[in-house]
Every structure is written in structure tokens, then in C-alpha cells.
């Protein structure tokens, strides 16, 4: 009985090829044997990515580009990779599609993982000023100075008015915040926060500046619908094309 059961299982385990409608099928899923590939190298800067590709460290495994000029092959010094700007925070270098399984193999990845300004969150007055000074760059075409001046001169005050006629006493309390210099809140300032690799120019964007009281809190909200990301990717593309001439760069 046991032997029959084992034979039955073995017969079901046999992979058979069947044909339907002119196409071949198998009775089991087949998995290809993967070819060995280079482990992905991860760096945190564009310079690190460029330095690796220029070093020739894995030149034997990666190979070179070969241009064809007037029927003759002229080897170049550029590594046989292409660059993909995935986002303002990530750039990937990969080998051309090749091999029987047509796989695109990544070899090095640059990821910018620094903290930027905490947009869309209300912060205390002190934290707001500290984060602004630490993560936003100055510029002639920005309103950083105005935002800092406004945020640094907010006064929280309580006023009490007492009325006493000898028979009864009334107390009226007013609470709120005011701007010491009397300036108007800059609702849509232009700022240049650090949001991508520091090797490239940071995009200038428009933000919505809001304030609320009890306790005093300030916040910046992005107001350009993500347009800064395209500008940042263009800046990264220019940097890479300058540092690695001839290497394809895609956005």
C-alpha cells in the first residue's frame, strides 16, 4: 500500500510537456538558474557614485563602451553602464540588458538620506527657527530673511481687564500672539531648502507659511505641486553628464 502511494506521488512529480493551440506548456513551473551578478554597491553621494565608475575597480566584470567609427571599433574609457535618476534622492547605475533572460542588473546606487525640513508639521517657535537655519539655504531670490525675522519676533501675551464698582467685580482676559514689529505674515515665501544631493544646486520653491497660537506654532507647506523634483533631477542630470561624459543619463 505504501509503495503504491510513493509510486503515485513520483508519477505526479514528473514534468510533462503539453501542446494546446500551437503553444507548448508544462505541468510544472520552471525556474531559470540565475547567472552570478555583481553585488549592489550603495553610496550616499553623487561623488561616491562618480568616483566608483571612474575608478575602473570592476572594469573587468563590467567592461567598456565601444564606439564604431568609420567601420573600426574604438574603445573608450567609459564604463558600460547607464544612469537612471529615479528621484531627487536616488540615482541608479545599471548594465545594459543582456543574457538569455534579458535582465537589467544594477551595479551601484546613490541614495541621499539626510534629514530635511519637516514640512506640513507645526513646530514650536524655537524648533521652527532652528530647523530653518539648519536645512534652508540663503539666496538673493529667496525670502528666508523675512521668514526668520517674522518667526523670531512673535510675542505671546495675556491681557486682563478688571472692572470693580464696589458691589461686584468683572475680569476680562484676552490671550493671543502678536508680531512685535507689526509686520504682515509672509503667506507664500520662496525658500531654498536642502532636499537633494548637496553636489547640485538646490531648487527654489514656493511654500505656504502658517501660524497658530496656544501654544505658538509655525509650519511650512509645500505649494509647488512637486515641481521642485523635476528641477532637482535636471540639476542631477547636468552634474552627471559633466562628470561622466558619454554615459547615458535617464530621468
Topology:
Blueprint: H1 2-13, E1 17-20, E2 23-26, E3 41-43, H2 46-55, H3 59-62, E4 64-69, E5 72-79, E6 82-87, E7 90-94, E8 106-111, E9 123-124, H4 125-135, E10 136-137, H5 144-152, E11 154-164, E12 169-179, E13 190-193, E14 205-212, E15 217-222, H6 227-243, E16 249-250
Helix pairs in contact: 4-5
The helix/strand order is HEEEHHEEEEEEHEHEEEEEHE
How far the N terminus sits from the C terminus, by CA atoms, comes to: 65 Å
The count of DSSP E runs of length 2 or more, i.e. the number of strands, is 16
Biggest sheet: strand arrangement: 3-8-7-6-16
Output mean pLDDT. 79
The biggest beta sheet is recorded as: 5 strands, mixed
Proportion of helical residues? 25-40%
State the main characteristics.
251 residues, 5-stranded mixed beta sheet, elongated
How would you describe this structure to a colleague?
The chain has 251 residues and is of the alpha+beta class. It folds into two domains: 90 residues, no CATH class; 102 residues, no CATH class. 25% of the residues lie in helices and 35% in strands. It contains six helices and 16 strands. The strands form five sheets. Strands 3-8-7-6-16 form a five-stranded mixed β-sheet, covered by helices on one side. α4 packs antiparallel against α5. The radius of gyration is 31 Å and the shape is elongated.
Amino acid at each position: 500500500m505504501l509503495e503504491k502511494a510513493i509510486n503515485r506521488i513520483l508519477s505526479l512529480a514528473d514534468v510533462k510537456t503539453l501542446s494546446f493551440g500551437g503553444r507548448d506548456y508544462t505541468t510544472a513551473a520552471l525556474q531559470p538558474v540565475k547567472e552570478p551578478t555583481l553585488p549592489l554597491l550603495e553610496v550616499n553621494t553623487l561623488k561616491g557614485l562618480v568616483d566608483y565608475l571612474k575608478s575602473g575597480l570592476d572594469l573587468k566584470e563590467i567592461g567598456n563602451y565601444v564606439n564604431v567609427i568609420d567601420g573600426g571599433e574604438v574603445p573608450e574609457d567609459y564604463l558600460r553602464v547607464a544612469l537612471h535618476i529615479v528621484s531627487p534622492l536616488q540615482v541608479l547605475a545599471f548594465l545594459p540588458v543582456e543574457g538569455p533572460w534579458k535582465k537589467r542588473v544594477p551595479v551601484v546606487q546613490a541614495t541621499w538620506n539626510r534629514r530635511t525640513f519637516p514640512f506640513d508639521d507645526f513646530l514650536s517657535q524655537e524648533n521652527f527657527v532652528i530647523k530653518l537655519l539648519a536645512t534652508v539655504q540663503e539666496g538673493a531670490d529667496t525670502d528666508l530673511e523675512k521668514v526668520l525675522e517674522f518667526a523670531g519676533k512673535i510675542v505671546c501675551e495675556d491681557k486682563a481687564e478688571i472692572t470693580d464698582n464696589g458691589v461686584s467685580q468683572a475680569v476680562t482676559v484676552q490671550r493671543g500672539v502678536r508680531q512685535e514689529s507689526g509686520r504682515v505674515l509672509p503667506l507664500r515665501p520662496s525658500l531654498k531648502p536642502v532636499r537633494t544631493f548637496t553636489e547640485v544646486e538646490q531648487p527654489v520653491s514656493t511654500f505656504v507659511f502658517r501660524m497658530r497660537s496656544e501654544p505658538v506654532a509655525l509650519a511650512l507647506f509645500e505649494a509647488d505641486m512637486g515641481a521642485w523634483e523635476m528641477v532637482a533631477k535636471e540639476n542631477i542630470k547636468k552634474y552627471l553628464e559633466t562628470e561622466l561624459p558619454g554615459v547615458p543619463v535617464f530621468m
